[in-house]
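Dear colleague,

Thank you for sharing your sequence with our group. We've completed the structure prediction you requested, and as agreed, I am returning the results in plain text so they can be pasted directly into your records. Please verify that the sequence below matches your submission; if there's any discrepancy, let me know and we will rerun it promptly.
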Amino acid sequence: MTTTTREIHLAARPQGWPTPEDFRTVEVELPDPGPGEVLVRNTVMSVDPYMRGRMNDVKSYVPPYRLDAPLDGGAVGEVVASGDDSLSPGDTVLHQLGWREHALAPARSFRKIDTSAVPASAYLSVLGMPGLTAYVGLTRIAEVREGDTVFVSGAAGAVGSLAGQIARKLGAAKVIGSAGSPEKVAWLTGELGYDVGLDYKAAPIGKQLAEHGPVDVYFDNVGGDHLEAAISAMGDFGRVAVCGMIADYNAETPQPGPRNMMMIVSKRLTIRGFIVTDHADAAGEFYERAGAWVAAGELAYRETYEDGLDRAVDAFLGVLSGANTGKMLVRL
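Please find the predicted structure tokens below.
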């Protein structure tokens, strides 16, 4: 017996901003799982900014997506058939075979998760890659200290919304965040507890941030003008954790760097990029601490949803344009 299902393929490599024409929905037939295999019906899939880089045919820290082949990424789902004793029908699992309605793979590709205290989607947001990224960036890369002033760009996104809260948990005395609308800024300074929210669309971010420095730690999700603003606003021996630079992801030509790079020398700044998968050994510590914070209601998170595989591309494009508050997810 086979399962008829759908998956999204990369039809063309985007030039600049991706368009719906760069993707194709394909119907496929999946056989029943063989020995050691598991068939999963996906219920929620993730779309993330890093996926844009994988659409380019360039060497990077992760292989590029192949043309005319399914995309992949984080997803959670329910086991519907199993050829392995480690997983049973009805189990909820986390895996990396998103962008499709069903996934068939060896059992080792799936991790059973506990949904008794949190919904499965939390393992794609607050207890997933975004949460771990925020935690690693603050504890290992920028090494937040008691009394620090921390600035987070893209603070209403999946990673940024958690970074500010975790910084406070680690002892930061003042947390500043930037976002792209009054509504998002209100969320930062309300539910998330940021001390200062800056609407970067309302006035130049450099001018706004200068009023709230000096900054000890900058968690960079944006790059571009935000990185330049942070360098200017930082105090001596400041630390920068560069998580992403979404301002440049769709650029068709190389973008100019910050114009104040000499300040890196005069202020003796440390700027370090990182990839969260290099720090898998931090996962256990993160899950223990973040799980307790979530259970106690001390780590707020929000999820923005699109519904159905047909909306997955729109959800992805929405992430690139800042349409999400918190984590962008697709319910299947």
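Summary note from our side: The chain has two domains: 2-125+301-331, 129-277.

Kind regards,
the structure core
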